[in-house]
Each structure stands twice: as structure tokens, then as C-alpha cells.
Inverse folding.
């Protein structure tokens, strides 16, 4: 006798319309528009992050730099900026830094520290000193007094020189020679019959005469040697006396210039040393100053030979009020650490200390430097060099090629500068985890983590702050204010973005974009305020601009190109729900999931996995189904089953376990022989105990199936089964809420597989009785019976038994 399934008595419990969307009553705001509200101060919903930021900014110990973790749009950058701006005002302005020439080794320029604003004055003072020297020295060396002193020195020594020459000439004549003084040597020329001999005439003499003359010359040379040396000494004495005179005159001419600068910087030891070196170098190179025309103004007009006296300012904090806050959004090596520029001279690249340029670290020294970590890590040299600087607390400038060992030519090695700043990295939580795990230095250098959440509690206080944020945005960007109904829609949209009725999204960038777009429509309509209709239109238009792919897929389903039934019944066939992400837009898409069974010992075979289209989490979900079947039906018999599962017309990788309950329903349907309602789609993961677990994207999945049902025609029998734990995540479109209210669409929350299979088949699931069997004519009874029959039948085919070695 054929057993008749035990039909379910009464309707399954479905969600009431008010459970599908948490509506906000704008009357709670007690105002007509955001124009009446007080603008927001600070950020909202990020108490944990701001507390961590405040701690990281205040603590001064080494290594307590900050990593700000969070997704873009949560206000992390704005929060960091506001907090750092406030903290910077309370700190002193850091020192200026400049590079000056190292006269002992020009390849190693010296770094000089000065109080903030003092570097410009020092640069100007040194310009004035050099310009003064260029004006004073030519004038003094062209004076009559200088000429008279020089002439006196020269005259006295020349008289001695002449007397010595007369004596030398007399001695030479007495020996039969003439004395000839050339620039390179002193010569003794033989004289015969009162006439000096030429070289040719000397060589024409007979050898005996030549030998005699040569011997006399050598003897005379020995007698005259000391006198000739004395003559040379007199010549050198003239040069020395003139040089001494020049230095004394030059020193007298510039001493008052140097003294005034020394007096001004007497408390700065390094500056005093440098000024003394400049003075000595001027005295060593007087001729350069005498030959040049004095400039009218500014060191830029001076000759290139004067560049060595310039002051190259690399950090000028004269305009700061408090500590610097620098944001470097393109953290290349040179942007961070500075560079040494080169220029072409006669076709050759040359450089000097005046071509040293500072980087963001120089500018932020003594304050705060904010860097996006994604961009920093794209520059390997930047990341490694930053760690080195933070560990050594020293900042150096060098050519990137030299750092990599690719440059062999000699270059500048500027002196390092002490580094004292707080670095704030902004990035996502995943990068923080990777850096903490893989980079051994990261945990020692970035000890503070400020984690920005994507949602906050939807409390009365936070709702007021949310509204204040809208007021601030409208005022800051000169937009129309929102009326109370529009604020209500924004708050509801905030819960929608958070995917939680009890939360509000802190992705303020997305919320702000909706307000900006709504303001555009309000301007077009020339209304006083932005209304709820403008907010609704902004949300719909944003979706419309991005949902082309969704509409094309729905069209293919409507035309049966993609096979998805929304009416009727079928055995072993269930509509599963998944979410497709296009980057800027996510939407739900139903897919037909089918199961087939036969005798065997293979268990459940996932065709997606076999085809290498199934991800690891999806594979785990399918394997859990075997655990559920064993737990429930294999207590008194072996599980003799060969089942195959597949997502029909799926050609891309499937990931996630949200379809595991759908796959299980398909298996139970084909095992029991009971048809499943095609108009009800399913989502939810399952554990081995048969409990249906929460999934993500509940709103998109429900709305995706609703759109397909609407395109094919709403029959009033269609709906979606979701995990009961996902009810709190529902913030569905108002259209779906209206359809549920009109009984044209249904949403069923379930806790267990038994409850879900009852809704899909209309047959009781059936509980296990005390004797271990299931109530007759129920789903579980039919499944158990079929599995038992298959186990018994399998004994007739021993070759199908899997033998283990």
C-alpha cells in the first residue's frame, strides 16, 4: 500500500512587514531640518579608535608609532587630521635645519640646527657677509695705501736682490762667465774675448778647451750655489710678504663684517665654527673676490665660485604655529627622504650641497607624518629606509642608486639629522596583520593600533550625532539642508549599509555621497530643503548606474536562457541564492541547485569541486552535509549513497557556505521523492546538527530573487527562506516590504533544516521516536527508508564495496 506524505497542518511562520526594515520616525528628531541642528564636533562611532589615537599621540617613548586600521570611508583620515592638528598646536615649533659647505671635505656637507625662523636670517646674514666682502676687498686692494705698502715691501727686498745679483755677476765675470737668470734656471755662459758663446760655438771648440771650460764652470757653480739659493729666498720672501700683507689687509677689510655675524650667533657653536671657516677661506681665496664684480642683491646673482658660501635651507619652520603635520600621499623614496639634485656643466652632471632637497621626513621632524601604507609598501626602498630611520633615530639623504649599490661614482654624503617624530600609517586591517606577522621590525616600531569600525550602535544618542554630521556636511559644503524626513531616510540607509537593524554605518564617505547627489536633485527642483524623495531618488539612481549586469542576468532568466523556475514543483531541485560583487555594486542572483543520487559508497560528490570551480569554504560546506546525513540517518545502517551536487549554469568559481542548506534540501528532496516548491529560494549555511546558520548579504539575496519573481510575475506563492539569526540584518527596500504586506511575497525565518524542508515540501519533517525510528509518512521517515533500501540493495553488489588496504 502506497504511503501518503503527512501534510503540514497550518501555515509556516513568516516575517511580518515591520520586521523587514527598521523604519525611523523623524518626529524623534524634534526639528524640521538639519538647519536647526548644532554642527558635529569631532567624529562619531569610533570611541575605541580615537582613544587609541590619543594614546599613541601623547606617549613619547620610542617605537609607539601608530597604525590606523580601517576600510576607506570610515573617517579614519579625517579623524587623524583633526586629532593631530589639535595635538600639534600644543607642541613647540621644531628647529630649522640647513646644510652648509664643509671646507675640509666638500663631499660631506654639514647639517646646522637653528631655532625656528632663524635659518632665513642666517642665510641672509651670510649673503650680506659675502656681498660685503665682494664690495670691500676690490676697493681696499685698489687703494693708494695698499699700493704704497706693497711697493715699500717690494722695494726693500728688490734692493737686496739687486746687490746680490751685482755680486754674482762680478764673480761670474772674474771666472770668465756671464750670469743669465731665466724663469726656470740660473745659467753660467762661457765668455771668450768678451763675447758669450752660443751652444753651437761651444760645441765647435776642441775637446780639451770644452773640458777646461766645463771644469771651471762646475767649480764656479759650487762657489755661487749659496748665493743663488739666497737669491731664490729673496724672491720667495717677496711673495710671502705680499701674501701676508694681502691677508692682513683683507682681514682688516672684512673683520667688522665677520665680527658682526659672530656676535649675532655667539650662542651657536656650530655656526661660529662655520663662520670662522668662511673667513679663513675668503682669506685663502682673495683673488676670487678681487676679480669679481659685486652683486646688486641676493646670492642668486653671485658667481658660481661663491656658491660654497651659501646656506641651503632644507627645513624652514618660520611659518609654523606648533608642531608640523605632514601628509605624504605619494611616499616615494625621494619624496620621503629628500634628494640630491644634479645639474649639467660642460656636458657633465655635477652637484654640491646647495642642490640638497628635503623630503617629508625633514618637514615632519619634531611633529607628525601621515602615510597611506598601501602606497608606502609599493615602494620597497621607502619602507625599508623608513624602518632604518625610525630605529636609528637619524635621517640621512643619499641617492637611491647609491643605496642599492648601483652607483659607483663619488657623490655627496650629507651629515645626518636627529629624527624625532611620530609616524601614522593608514591602511586596512589585513595589511596590519600581514606586517605584524611577516615583518619582524613592525611590532617594535608601530606599537599602537587604532582600529576604525564600520558600524556603530543605532542608539538615540548616536542618531542625534548622525544628524549633526549631516548638518556639518551641509554647512561645510554649502549644500541645502535636509528636512526631517530626509534625515530619517539617511538613518535607515545607514542601517542598510551596516546590514544591521541595530547599527549605523560609519562609512561616512558613502553616506555623504548620497547626500551630495540628493542635493543635486533638490537644486534641480528648486526646493528649500532636501526631502526624503530626493534621498530615495539618489539611492535608486546610484543603483541604476551600476546594475546593468544584474538586469541582463534577470532578462536571461525571464527568457529562460538561464533556467530558474519561480513556480511549480520539482524533485531534487532548489533555488539557491548568492551575491555577485562588481566592486561598486553588489546584487543577489538565484541559481538552480540540483542533486542526483544512486547506489554507491562515494558519498556526496561536489561537481563544482571536481571541476575546480569550488572554493575551500564551499567545499567545507558540502563536506558538512555528509556529517549531517551520518548523524541523522546512519545510526542503524551504513550510509550507502552516491550523490552529486551542482550549481546549474555556473561557469565561475563558487565560494562560501551559504548554499549548504540549499544543497541539503535538494538531497533530502531527491531521497524522499518529495517535490520542492520552485517559488521559494533558500539561503543559509548548516552545521552537522542541522542548525541553520547566519550568512552575509541577506538583503541583496532576497532582493535579487524578488526582482526575478517580479519580472516573471508575482504569484503570491513566492518567497525566501533565511536563517532566523539573519532577521536582525534585514533592511529591505520599501517595495519588498509593500509586497510582503500585500501577501505577494513571503520571507520565512528558520532555525533548523527540519523547519526549512517543511516549508519547501509542505510535509512534516518528522521527529525521531523513542525506538529510533521516524514518524511515518514524514520527510525524515521517507529519507531514512530510502537510505535503508539502498544499503540493503548494495549488498547484492559486493563489487561496489570499497575495500581498504
Amino acid at each position: 500500500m502506497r504511503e501518503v506524505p503527512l501534510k503540514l497542518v497550518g501555515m509556516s511562520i513568516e516575517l511580518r512587514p515591520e520586521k523587514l526594515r527598521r523604519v525611523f520616525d523623524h518626529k524623534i528628531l524634534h526639528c524640521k531640518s538639519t538647519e536647526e541642528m548644532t554642527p558635529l564636533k569631532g567624529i562619531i562611532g569610533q570611541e575605541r579608535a580615537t582613544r587609541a589615537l590619543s594614546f599613541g599621540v601623547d606617549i613619547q617613548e620610542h617605537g609607539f608609532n601608530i597604525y590606523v586600521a580601517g576600510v576607506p570611508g570610515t573617517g579614519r583620515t579625517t579623524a587623524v587630521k583633526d586629532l593631530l592638528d589639535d595635538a600639534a598646536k600644543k607642541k613647540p615649533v621644531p628647529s630649522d635645519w640647513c646644510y652648509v659647505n664643509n671646507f675640509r671635505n666638500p663631499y660631506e656637507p654639514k647639517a646646522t640646527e637653528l631655532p625656528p625662523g632663524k635659518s632665513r636670517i642666517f642665510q641672509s646674514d651670510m649673503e650680506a657677509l659675502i656681498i660685503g666682502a665682494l664690495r670691500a676687498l676690490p676697493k681696499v686692494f685698489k687703494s693708494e695705501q695698499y699700493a704704497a705698502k706693497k711697493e715699500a715691501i717690494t722695494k726693500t727686498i728688490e734692493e737686496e736682490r739687486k746687490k746680490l745679483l751685482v755680486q754674482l755677476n762680478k764673480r761670474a765675470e772674474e771666472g770668465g762667465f756671464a750670469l743669465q737668470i731665466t724663469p726656470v734656471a740660473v745659467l753660467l755662459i762661457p765668455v771668450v774675448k768678451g763675447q758669450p758663446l752660443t751652444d753651437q760655438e761651444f760645441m765647435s771648440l776642441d775637446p780639451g778647451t770644452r773640458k777646461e771650460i766645463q771644469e771651471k764652470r762646475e767649480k764656479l757653480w759650487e762657489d755661487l750655489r749659496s748665493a743663488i739659493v739666497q737669491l731664490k729666498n729673496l724672491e720667495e720672501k717677496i711673495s710671502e710678504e705680499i701674501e701676508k700683507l694681502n691677508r692682513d689687509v683683507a682681514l682688516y677689510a672684512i673683520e667688522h663684517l665677520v665680527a658682526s655675524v659672530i656676535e649675532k650667533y655667539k650662542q651657536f657653536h656650530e655656526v661660529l665654527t662655520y663662520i670662522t671657516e668662511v673667513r679663513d677661506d675668503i682669506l685663502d681665496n682673495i683673488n676670487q673676490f678681487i676679480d669679481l664684480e659685486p652683486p646688486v642683491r641676493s646670492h642668486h646673482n653671485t658667481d658660481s665660485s661663491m656658491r660654497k658660501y651659501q646656506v641651503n635651507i632644507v627645513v624652514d619652520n618660520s611659518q609654523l604655529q606648533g608642531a608640523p603635520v605632514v601628509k605624504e600621499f605619494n611616499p616615494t623614496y625621494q619624496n620621503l627622504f629628500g634628494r640630491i639634485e644634479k645639474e649639467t656643466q660642460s656636458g657633465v652632471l655635477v652637484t654640491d650641497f646647495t642642490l640638497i632637497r628635503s623630503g617629508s621626513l625633514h618637514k615632519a621632524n619634531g611633529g607628525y607624518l601621515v602615510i597611506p601604507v598601501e602606497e608606502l609598501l609599493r615602494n620597497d626602498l621607502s619602507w625599508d629606509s623608513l624602518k632604518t630611520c625610525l630605529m636609528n633615530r637619524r635621517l640621512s639623504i643619499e641617492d637611491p642608486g647609491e643605496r642599492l649599490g648601483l652607483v659607483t661614482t663619488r657623490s655627496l654624503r650629507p651629515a645626518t639629522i636627529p629624527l624625532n617624530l611620530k609616524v601614522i600609517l593608514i591602511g586596512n586591517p589585513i595589511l596590519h596583520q600581514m606586517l605584524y606577522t611577516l615583518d619582524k621590525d613592525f611590532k617594535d616600531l608601530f606599537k599602537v593600533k587604532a582600529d576604525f569600525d564600520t558600524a556603530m550602535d543605532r542608539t538615540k544618542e548616536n542618531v542625534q550625532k548622525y544628524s549633526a554630521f549631516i548638518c556639518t556636511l551641509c554647512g561645510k559644503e554649502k549644500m541645502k539642508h535636509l528636512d526631517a524626513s530626509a534625515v530619517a531616510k539617511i538613518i535607515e540607509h545607514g542601517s542598510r549599509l551596516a546590514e544591521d537593524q541595530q547599527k549605523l554605518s560609519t562609512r561616512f564617505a558613502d553616506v555623504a555621497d548620497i547626500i551630495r547627489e540628493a542635493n543635486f536633485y533638490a537644486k534641480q527642483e528648486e526646493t528649500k530643503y532636501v526631502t526624503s524623495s530626493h534621498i530615495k531618488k539618489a539611492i535608486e539612481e546610484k543603483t541604476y548606474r551600476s546594475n546593468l549586469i544584474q538586469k541582463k542576468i534577470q532578462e536571461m532568466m525571464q527568457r529562460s536562457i538561464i533556467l530558474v523556475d519561480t513556480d511549480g514543483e520539482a524533485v531534487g531541485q532548489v533555488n539557491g541564492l548568492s551575491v555577485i560583487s562588481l566592486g561598486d555594486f553588489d546584487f543577489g542572483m538565484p541559481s538552480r541547485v540540483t542533486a542526483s543520487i544512486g547506489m554507491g559508497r562515494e558519498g556526496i560528490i561536489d561537481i563544482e569541486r571536481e571541476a575546480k570551480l569550488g572554493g575551500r569554504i564551499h567545499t567545507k560546506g558540502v563536506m558538512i552535509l555528509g556529517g549531517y546525513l551520518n548523524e541523522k540517518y546512519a545510526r542503524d545502517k551504513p550510509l550507502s549513497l552516491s550523490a552529486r551536487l551542482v550549481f546549474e549554469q555556473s561557469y565561475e568559481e563558487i565560494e562560501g557556505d551559504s548554499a549548504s542548506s540549499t544543497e541539503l534540501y535538494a538531497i533530502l528532496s531527491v531521497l524522499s521523492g518529495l517535490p520542492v516548491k520552485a517559488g521559494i529560494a533558500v539561503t543559509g549555511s548548516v552545521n552537522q546538527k542541522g542548525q541553520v546558520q547566519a550568512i552575509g548579504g541577506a538583503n541583496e539575496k532576497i532582493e535579487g530573487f524578488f526582482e526575478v519573481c517580479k519580472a516573471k510575475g508575482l504569484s503570491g506563492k513566492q518567497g525566501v527562506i533565511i536563517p532566523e539569526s539573519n532577521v536582525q540584518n534585514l533592511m529591505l527596500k520599501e517595495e519588498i516590504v509593500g509586497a510582503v504586506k500585500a501577501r505577494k511575497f513571503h520571507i520565512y525565518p528558520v532555525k533548523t533544516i527540519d523547519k526549512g524542508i517543511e516549508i519547501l515540501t509542505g510535509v512534516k519533517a518528522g521527529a525521531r521516536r523513542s525506538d529510533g525510528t521516524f514518524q511515518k509518512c514524514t520527510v525524515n521517515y521517507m529519507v531514512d527508508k530510502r537510505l535503508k533500501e539502498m544499503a540493503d540493495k548494495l549488498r547484492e553488489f559486493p563489487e561496489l564495496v570499497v575495500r581498504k588496504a
Confidence is low (pLDDT under 50) at residues 296-301.
